[in-house]
Write a structure and sequence with these properties.
homodimer; mainly alpha; 3-stranded mixed beta sheet; elongated
Chain lengths: 457, 457
């Protein structure tokens, strides 16, 4: 059954009030799908009605998949007992995520319905800065001691594993909770029951600090193909782990943010259709405003050279084409370098390599564009359309501008993100939108320069 | 030790020719780091020399982390025995990946040095279309039978698990290899030894078809928080699995591709610094050329209305600002919608919701921009700079253009990607670059229209 069929079937069962079949159907499918179905299903009351049909475990797993609004509404509909039941089954890092999105009254209710130990764990996650590794970790992991046998380890996993987000990577800690080794259930399964953990654990443990960036954590999980990454505090004590599913979410969020920034939008992680018009407007208008105002620099330039440009109106007609070409050239370079920076393929130290490379790409691109444009102007505009104003000299001004502006735009477009990163600013914010304004100004100055030089205007 | 320190230490040991310490050091760190270190280390011969110090397992795990060029050079340096040793340890999906990048002579050598069974498995992966789920799956998974006990299952895992990419998700198949259930090692560990697999397996199995898009597979792994996704053929027989680490790679590649397309670059998965100048030029120039040629439409418009525009030169000076503002407005919308489409937050069916939403965002944005621009023109340009050419009527023409073009650009920018998707085209390709050309043309026509209407030019 695809999603539409599931939705139809659910609505049919609901209309028939077929409680038995509803229960069976909902509890059989994956919680991620249940959540999506219940979010599609019309009104609040139906959603609560259907949610109550879920088994304890499914209810919890479904709950974490809902967006903040739905979670808030459900919590309001819950009795304290229901809330406690759901909370007991949710992993601590997910409870912390939920709390971050809720208004104060709901937060109080949540904390009142969790046991003191959990409450403390939640608070310790919440105190880490946003976007830090600590803020996305979970304190629920399997820890072993180095003198345990494999059999002891399995006993421990069997006893404590049910509540852990992942049991497959096991961490070996000493008496003061320092991380001294790591092993996997695969390793344990392939070893003998009386092997000692110390002999099979990997001692060169790769970990991250609680205060490091969550993006770094995700990159490490992806680079090393880990299922979980251990998080240690400033005294190297193991305090939590970050699981691969959370890393994927972070990667997707960071990618969305980069794309938004490159398109001159203040990042938001609310899905498009759930963002209100005013909310979208607030994310977009400051940049549009800033870019509009900075673009008026171009009108100052054109006004300043008004007398000269009026002597050769034909030049004016090519301004949008020239600024577009410069903007596109620069945009290609800035997007490429921003992406390379965020994938760690390029670092600040590579700036001269990048400039040299873009200079060469800019040169061959500029030559190709210039030649094609010259031919187009001479054959299409002058001969076919009979536009006598386009003399060889005019075409030369236009094409030389294309050549030089392409090189300039590529160099600026590629170095600006690196300089931004060097200054501790966000490469993506400074990049695409501003590149086009900067390249507009430069293109116009080059254009007018060549016009004065060649056409003596 | 961070990466720079590791590199320094490695170079020191190499200079001292301290083979014992080199071996110890290299085999202690993670293969992903070894690969990065060896790629940094200068010449070919040193790399081969250092690579030969790795244990069999580390050698294989390091080998798959290298880029294609390094892999090719190493294979050329290998004896057949060495090549066979490395290949034996590499997962089949990774061998298939390597083969796809190699020239024919190397492919022949690789296939000659794999056993017939592996060769067949590799060939079956290679026959799936690029970007399909089949092309990134591995045929090495743990399969169980429904009548096995948990003890039987563990025996089977212990016996066959060492060669499997993941053992944590186990698939239950019937006699004709149909996928009938799924369970996890966690579930097995938490069950009794004499429990029957059939009783604890999940029968509502989520799987993907070999021919489905690999991007869909990655989204499913991310949505359901799976460690592996089963891949079935057209007859519902289990043929392989896709593991979460490969899904992350696909997600990152697809994101890079989207960003490249949005910046008018033909996608490539070669890292920036490893792409040659000519290679980069080839990926960028077709789009620059196409956009330059299509932008000449703006010069046709400006030439057509030359006589009218010459009567009010002041209008010309604002053309770059107006086209930029339209382009930025449209770019925001297209980037937002393209991203929402690729995250499946928005579908083709939502087109009218999207238009209605962007119409409203465009209206409030257009009003805000128009008012600010009007004030700026009247106070800054007219009063402070004393530009008498900017009359109230001229300012009105400019600001009304901003208002209308913003709405148009937002609607076009947001619907074009959806229409592209509906037509089976790539939303990202059609989007950003073309939006700016289209919005340029529309902005100029609106501008000239208002000028004729209000200024009677």
């Amino acid at each position: 059954m695809n999603f539409e069929e599931m939705l139809e079937y659910l609505e049919k069962l609901h209309k028939e009030r077929n409680v038995r079949k509803l229960k069976a159907f909902l509890n059989e499918i994956n919680p991620a799908d249940i959540a999506q179905l219940l979010e599609e299903v019309g009104d609040e009351r139906t959603r609560v009605f259907l949610f109550r049909m879920l088994t304890k475990e499914n209810a919890a797993e479904t709950f974490v998949e809902f967006d903040g609004d739905t979670q808030e509404n459900l919590i309001r509909a819950f009795s304290d007992t229901e809330l406690k039941e759901v909370l007991d089954e949710i992993y601590i890092d997910d409870v912390a995520d939920i709390i971050e999105e809720m208004p104060a009254t709901i937060v109080k209710r949540i904390l009142r319905n969790t046991d003191p130990e959990t409450r403390e764990a939640i608070n310790s996650i919440l105190k880490y800065p946003e976007d830090s590794a600590g803020s996305i970790m979970t304190p629920e992991f399997v820890d072993l001691k180095k003198d345990m046998t494999v059999e002891d380890a399995f006993k421990r996993i069997r006893r404590t594993g049910v509540d852990k987000e992942t049991i497959y990577t096991c961490y070996v800690t000493d008496a003061s909770r320092h991380l001294i080794g790591v092993t996997t259930v695969k390793e344990l399964l392939l070893s003998d029951y009386d092997d000692i953990i110390e002999d099979l654990m990997e001692t060169n443990v790769i970990s991250i600090n609680t205060l490091d960036d969550r993006e770094t954590a995700s990159h490490m999980l992806s680079k090393y193909d880990f299922l979980a990454l251990p998080v240690v505090d400033t005294e190297s004590r193991l305090v939590g782990i970050i699981t691969v599913d959370d890393a994927i979410d972070v990667i997707q969020e960071e990618n969305t943010e980069d794309i938004q920034k490159m398109a001159a939008i203040t990042p938001t992680d609310t899905p498009y259709l759930k963002t209100s018009v005013i909310e979208s407007w607030k994310k977009r208008i400051p940049w549009l405003m800033l870019l509009m105002i900075s673009a008026t620099l171009t009108s100052q330039i054109l006004t300043t050279f008004e007398d000269r440009l009026l002597q050769a109106y034909v030049l004016t007609a090519f301004i949008p084409m020239l600024t577009d070409t410069g903007g596109n050239s620069g945009g290609q370079s800035s997007a490429t370098v921003i992406r390379a920076l965020s994938l760690n393929e390029v670092g600040i130290k590579d700036i001269f390599k990048v400039i040299w490379k873009e200079f060469r790409i800019g040169t061959v691109s500029g030559i190709s564009l210039g030649i094609v444009c010259f031919i187009k102007l001479m054959i299409f505009d002058r001969i076919i359309l009979g536009n006598g104003a386009i003399t060889v000299a005019v075409a030369l001004v236009i094409c030389l501008t294309i050549f030089v502006e392409t090189i300039c735009a590529k160099i600026i477009g590629s170095t600006l993100p690196i300089i931004a990163k060097r200054m501790g600013l966000d490469p993506a914010v400074l990049a695409n939108p501003f590149i086009s304004t900067i390249s507009d100004v430069i293109s116009l100055l080059i254009y007018i320069g060549f016009a004065i030089l060649i056409l003596n205007i």
